[in-house]
Amino acid sequence: MNASTPATTVDPREAAHFGAMAADWWNPAGSSAMLHRLNPVRLRYLRAAIDRHWGLDPAERRPLTGRRAVDVGCGAGLLCEPLARLGAVVTGIEPAPESVAAARAHAAGQGLAITYREGSVDQLGDEPYDLVVSLEVVEHVADPAAYVAALAGALAKDGLLILSTPNRTALSRLALIGIGETVGGIPPGTHDWDRFLTPEELTALLTTAGLRVVDVTGLGFSPARGFTLGDDRSLNYLLTATHAGSA
User: Fold this and answer.
1) What whole-number distance in Å separates Cα of residue 101 and Cα of residue 105?
2) Region 12-243: CATH code
């Protein structure tokens, strides 16, 4: 990591909040049920971005073979495990020790060799990653600009960065907090609407960090279809970035 990177961007209160959910993380009907419902559509976006960036065959079952991937803020490994099944050499970084323990135990039960480290971007090390992923995390860190800069610093020259986060809109306040944290099954206190970043704000942080945003796709919800990808970014969005000088 660059010597100027701060010691940590972890907000201890956020780490404690998510650490308390660790034992239930892999329960699709538990406190992380929303993440379980989100994961298939996030993986669909991620797979399309990977194929597009490296010119891969969409039918290839292990397209990340030979590539290093890191999931920063990985929780108990809900995304790390599919990345490993896609062939990547996967590292998961997570500040809550309870979540790291749960991630290691679940991966062992699945026969997956995933490296989990307790910490945040300060634990990324000096060797670059081909794929850097951080989903629903940037809105929980103490310093988003420093966090994004550290993610950029860990990205290989031809690497791909994928982020997702709620947008700061009236809809996200209503859906994620007003409904989600009262009757929607999201644990109260999970979200702070004032910390949500608009696509323009996150793009500016990435540009300052030397990256180029190549795609922003909305992540919405339909009562009939569940979570969907599309042009509507008013609830949540996924974003892909590369180094500014890359093709």
Assistant:
1) 6
2) 3.40.50.150
For 9, the token pair is 């961007």
**pTM (two decimals):** 0.88
What are the pLDDT digits (tens) for 71-110?
999 999 999 999 999 999 999 999 989 999 999 999 999 9
47-53, long-range: CB < 8 A, 24+ apart: 47/86, 49/160, 49/162, 49/215, 49/240, 50/86, 50/131, 50/160, 53/160, 53/240, 53/242
Q: Rounded to 5 degrees, what angle do the CA atoms 143, 147, 153 make?
A: 150
One-letter amino acid for residue 90 of the chain = V
3-state secondary structure 113-136: CCEEEECCHHHCCCCCEEEEEEEC
Residue 201 makes CB contacts below 8 A (sequence gap 6+) with 168
Which value, to the nearest 10 degrees, does the dihedral of the CA atoms of residues 228, 120, 1, 197 take? 40
